[in-house]
Amino acid sequence: MVEHWLAIAATDHLTRDALRARVLRRRDQVQLTEDVTGQARQQQLIRMADRAIAAAQEIEQLAAAFNAKYKAYALFTLEVTRTPYVPA
User: On the chain, which terminus has fewer CB atoms closer than 10 Å, C or N?
Assistant: First the structure.
């Protein structure tokens, strides 16, 4: 599921805030049914979406921390992007 949202972010060139808004909008659209199995599955998907957002934020924070720590060495910096890497 995380890969699904990352693919959407990459193909639609979404920023972090736009991705968060889309995931939350999708989460809010999910209608809970009387079916216990369906309800459990929907809750699982909501938790996965929340984890995907948290993971993306953590990656951005780790990249920022790395850049700040090794800025003095100026060998390279990390840039978190939504554009997928496609080798030539």
Answer: C
Type of residue at 10: A
- HEC sequence for 26-86: HHHHCCCCCCHHHHHHHHHHHHHHHHHHHHHHHHHHHHHHHHHHCCCCCCCCCCCCCCCCC
Give just the sign of the alpha carbon dihedral 11, 17, 22, 23. Answer: positive
Specify whether the CB–CB gap between 13 and 82 falls below 8 A.
yes
Tokens at 20, concatenated:
């968060």
Give the integer Cα–Cα distance in Å for 35 and 26.
20
Which residue, chain included where needed, has tokens 């790395």? 66
pTM of the model: 0.49
What one-character DSSP code corresponds to residue 12? T
From the first residue on, what is the mean pLDDT of each consecutive set of 10 residues in the chain (88 residues)?
A: 73 78 73 66 83 86 89 80 73
